[in-house]
Amino acid sequence: MIKRAPRNRKTKLFVLDTNVLMHDPTSLFRFEEHDVFVPIMTLEELDNNKKGMSEVARNARQASRTMDEVVTSCLDGIDAGIDLKGPSHDLATGKLFLQTEAINVVLPAALPTAKGDNQILAVVMHLVERFPKRPVILVSKDINMRIKARALGLAAQDYFNDKVLEDTDLLYTGWLELPADFWDTHGKGMESWKEDGRTYYRIKGPLAAGMLINEFLFQDGGTPLQAWVKEKNGRSVLIETLTDYAHTKNNVWGITARNREQNFALNLLMNPEIDFVTLLGQAGTGKTLLTLAAALTQVLEAKRYSEIIMTRVTVPVGEDIGFLPGTEEEKMAPWMGALEDNLDVLNGTTGEGGDWGRAATRDLIRSRIKIKSLNFMRGRTFINKFLIIDEAQNLTPKQMKTLITRAGPGTKVVCLGNIAQIDTPYLTEGSSGLTFVVDRFKDWPHSGHITLQRGERSRLADHAAEVL
């Protein structure tokens, strides 16, 4: 146990629950100047969860390896705490304490001592008694564990370090509505010219400083404008007008944009200079349909990419229906209902030709779409492919990194999702991998993001999304 009083009374002592280490194996180094305490039961539970090929098992093994490196770096014995400054490369300056003695704390009769969670609570109670003047805080991703801790009068909190944003309303939308007086306040010294059918404006002003590259700008009214930021230099930006995909002459595989955000999304999806696209939106906003239409056009007509690869996280909404027969593609087929539904729509837009023509077109389309499971993605490199990651809100930031780093030369990656529909345990809107990549990629010249607002599926679906 901790043998001596802390150096500074203001530093806190954080007791880690197992799920924190399994969620983020590097969490030991995320508490800055504060000390970290790992109970023996946390190590037991890590040991119980280390077997298997799941993400949780991998994280448990990684957490154990990280702890082993920290412990072996200590030359003086572990009773007085292990300095984290060296192992964390100056990320943390506190100490790591491991439970080195048996703790005998009497828990309330209603809490069975055989349960791991309750043994960790007993450790927290012991530390509170031992250091009455020092803040001792339990850190857990388990809501019930935090409620139990507070019921016992202990301080408990969620692990916030992996959260990109506290409030997802502040998440980057990818577009900005210009105020009515925008040209009056930003028109001084403006340059404007036409090139290849596009109009360019170089503007300066207070709003320009906050704009991001590939952010979409729009203004309604007498002279409507839809444009996007192509270059940024301090308080000066270069904006370019968009291709109007709402017009039938610019249709993408027979699909036209039905609203402003869909037009923005198609400009990102059809631009060969944009390697990474994220589309957020509730059910029925057209995320999958637009992406598949753009993918088919660029694979079958423009020959820009060799094939479409589609994947998604296999997290069931209800009870699991057990093992599925067949090959990898056949096992993934029940998860890819959205793909089949959208192909039915797109196949109906390819013109006349009767049932035979449609069947032949469908076979041609299916031959160019590969459905892959996330489980076999490690170590792969996709060259010249159009990679679609559906239901990306269910991915952790680490899984998202694994997937996006599969992209080789000439590959475009599109992530689709709705952060209001997260099915993965312990993931929240603030810590989802989709929120993570939207925030991290928002000012990279070869990426773009759009939050789709209006549902276009049906009046029933739109009303259900609002009222249910």
TrEMBL record:
<dbReference type="InterPro" id="IPR002716">
    <property type="entry name" value="PIN_dom"/>
</dbReference>
<dbReference type="Pfam" id="PF13638">
    <property type="entry name" value="PIN_4"/>
</dbReference>
<dbReference type="Pfam" id="PF02562">
    <property type="entry name" value="PhoH"/>
</dbReference>
<dbReference type="InterPro" id="IPR051451">
    <property type="entry name" value="PhoH2-like"/>
</dbReference>
<dbReference type="InterPro" id="IPR027417">
    <property type="entry name" value="P-loop_NTPase"/>
</dbReference>
<feature type="domain" description="PIN">
    <location>
        <begin position="12"/>
        <end position="147"/>
    </location>
</feature>
<dbReference type="InterPro" id="IPR029060">
    <property type="entry name" value="PIN-like_dom_sf"/>
</dbReference>
<protein>
    <submittedName>
        <fullName>AAA family ATPase</fullName>
    </submittedName>
</protein>
<dbReference type="InterPro" id="IPR003714">
    <property type="entry name" value="PhoH"/>
</dbReference>
<comment type="similarity">
    <text>Belongs to the PhoH family.</text>
</comment>
<keyword id="KW-0547">Nucleotide-binding</keyword>
<keyword id="KW-0067">ATP-binding</keyword>
<comment type="similarity">
    <text>In the N-terminal section; belongs to the PINc/VapC protein family.</text>
</comment>
